[in-house]
TrEMBL record:
Quaternary structure and interacting proteins, as annotated: Self-assembles to form functional amyloid fibrils called rodlets. Self-assembly into fibrillar rodlets occurs spontaneously at hydrophobic:hydrophilic interfaces and the rodlets further associate laterally to form amphipathic monolayers.
GO cellular component term, pick one: fungal-type cell wall
Species of origin: Roridomyces roridus
Lineage of the organism: Eukaryota, Fungi, Dikarya, Basidiomycota, Agaricomycotina
InterPro entries: Class_I_Hydrophobin
The protein, known as: Hydrophobin
Entry's localization field: Secreted, Cell wall
Principal location listed in the UniProt entry: secreted
Length: 96
């Protein structure tokens, strides 16, 4: 008897990098090539391979005027809802 082995691979494309338009308050901002960014991205199913952009970790939208952010204020690509506010891509520092 022969047994068959099927291997399935799942390809999760890298998120597209677009001009940042979403003001965010992030606990930290790290390089997309860092171990921390890779670990968080893996938790939400993102593949950051080939990207070299700043990544915000533990981010939440800034929705009111004024800066009561206890972390780093940045503008990022709009994070996808399924990322659960744990990561944002292409984050650039801003002053509010």
């Amino acid at each position: 008897m022969f047994s068959k082995l099927f291997v399935a691979s799942v390809f999760v494309p890298s998120p597209p990098v677009t001009p940042p338009t979403s003001n965010q308050c992030c606990a930290s901002v790290v390089s997309s090539t860092s171990a921390a960014a890779s670990a968080v991205a893996a938790l939400v199913g993102l593949d950051l391979t080939g990207l070299d952009v700043p990544v915000g970790l533990s981010c939440s939208p800034i929705t009111v005027v004024g800066n009561n952010c206890g972390g780093t204020t940045v503008t990022c690509d709009s994070p996808n809802a399924e990322w659960g506010n744990v990561i944002a891509i292409n984050c650039l520092p801003i002053t509010l």
